[in-house]
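Study this:
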Amino acid sequence: MELHTSTYDGKPAFLFLDEDEQVVELPTEFMHSLVLSPQKYASGTFSRYAEKLRDLCRFLARHEVYGQVRVDEALANLKRPALSAFYRSLQAGGQQAATVRLAEAAVRKFTEWLNTDEAGYIHDRPLYPEHASGLTPPPNKRQPRYLAHSQVIELAQTMRFEAQRLVTHFMFDTGLRVSEVPRVLKKDLPDWRHYPDGQMYFPLLVRGSKGRGGQFKERYTIISRPMLSRLARHHNTKRYQFNLDFEENERPALLNVFGDKWTKDAIEKLIEKARDKTSIPSASSHMLRHGTSFSILRS
């Protein structure tokens, strides 16, 4: 079972092929329906749902009973005991409870579609009746891992350039996701002169990454006075002031050591390389974000 992804007319497209390279129609049509649905989904949801349906199709193709027929026929005759076996196989394969729970969410959405007029009522009754509980247990709430102040300092001390230390400090100070950092513009930064003397924290506009349908969701976070001072020094450097690659209203708040816009991958690689030079067992951009939350809770 193979899953092929592409883009058509600006929208993601998914194609499921069996071992004979024939189209598996039901999951292919479901994903097409999901993409065209008026309900807005986050950009990564489609890919995650498609991957979990591919895993289900692979499981059925290898099943001692369902594997005797084509995958579409197996899906049309699917029963809850087979779904339970599928989820148990994911757990036995080492997948975390949250990942198995996501697989069930995708399968539940798919089986609900099979019981619709659009699908031709492939299932005469839903596998998940309304308000029915799931077949998988909810994942345990884990304490989020974070970086403490001392660890952030240790990371920064391994970095050679101020632009690298600055972006690390910026994420820890503001709690932004790594994908949001490149979208912060200089014009988004608050002007401390418009606030009362002695105020240490200011609102910062963020074009967030968790909007529906791939749209940016604007929200506010806080940024500290020392962070604004450090950014002001960054903006006064020759590399920043004489950079003509950006329109004035589109200038990023932070540039990398080459005077270019930071990218998500570059920031993650920076943190990874810095971690390898320290005694810190684990460090990531997301742990910087959790470190921000923890420091706020402690204050």
Notes: Residues 43 and 214 are 5 Å apart (CA to CA).
